[in-house]
Design brief:
Blueprint lengths: L1 H16 L8 H8 L3 H21 L9 H20 L4 H14 L3 H12 L3 H30 L1 H22 L12 H6 L1 H15 L1
Helix pairs in contact: 1-6, 1-7, 1-8, 2-3, 3-5, 4-5, 4-8, 6-7, 7-8
Length: 210
């Protein structure tokens, strides 16, 4: 169980880091595509919008579907979106790829309840470890993206994340257990309609962890 918790924490770190990869290298993107920094900033904005949409539209599926194939599918699709961003031929392509990265990235919001379900009596400790992984990814991504971008260019930042996603995804294929949804009989539309009540009763933080 300990090894699995560490793997899940690494998964939280690797996936959450995708949200802020581009911000330290926006000036390089602007220079590469000969656009203003404000235009390049649309890539970062689209990532955030996509991330919010992913939490609202994809995370509720964790209550209905087995989280193992759902997490693996999102990991694979996010990897493809990262590769698309790394090979973007123009700024429009990068904006769309960035939105896709954000949309497909809310894997930590699926991993956290999975860790709780698997933890038994050690729920608090497991949540703490997973949250630490999440925060590490959010905080460290800007630093390593900035350093790597400075020496290798912004595209290599994305390719590095592709490698991290592939390695983490393969480890999950080998170690991630099945975790059937707690409400498999609920339709997707019903799950979405339940979100306002969750926001009202538990707040945004509670909804993200649910």
């Amino acid at each position: 169980m300990r090894a699995l918790v560490i793997l899940l924490a690494v998964t939280c770190a690797v996936t959450s880091s995708n949200i802020y990869l581009l911000q330290p290298v926006l000036d390089q993107v602007a220079h590469d595509f000969a656009v203003s920094e404000a235009t390049a900033g649309l890539c970062a904005t689209s990532t955030q919008i996509g991330y919010a949409a992913g939490i609202l539209l994809l995370v509720p599926l964790g209550d209905r579907l087995d989280r193992r194939p759902l997490i693996l599918a999102l990991m694979g699709l996010t990897t493809l979106a990262l590769a698309a961003a790394a090979s973007a031929p123009n700024i429009t392509w990068l904006v769309v790829a960035s939105a896709a990265i954000g949309l497909l990235t809310p894997v930590p919001q699926l991993v956290l309840p999975l860790g709780v379900a698997l933890s038994g009596q050690g729920t608090g400790r497991v949540v703490g470890v997973l949250q630490a992984g999440l925060l590490t990814g959010l905080l460290a991504s800007r630093a390593y993206a900035g350093v790597l971008g400075e020496f290798a260019g912004w595209r290599q930042v994305y390719w590095c994340s592709v490698v991290l996603m592939v390695v983490t995804g393969l480890a999950l294929v080998l170690r991630l257990p099945s975790a059937p949804g707690t409400e498999p009989e609920l339709r997707y539309g019903v799950l979405l309609r339940s979100l306002p009540g969750l926001f009202r009763d538990r707040g945004v933080a509670g909804t993200c962890l649910a």
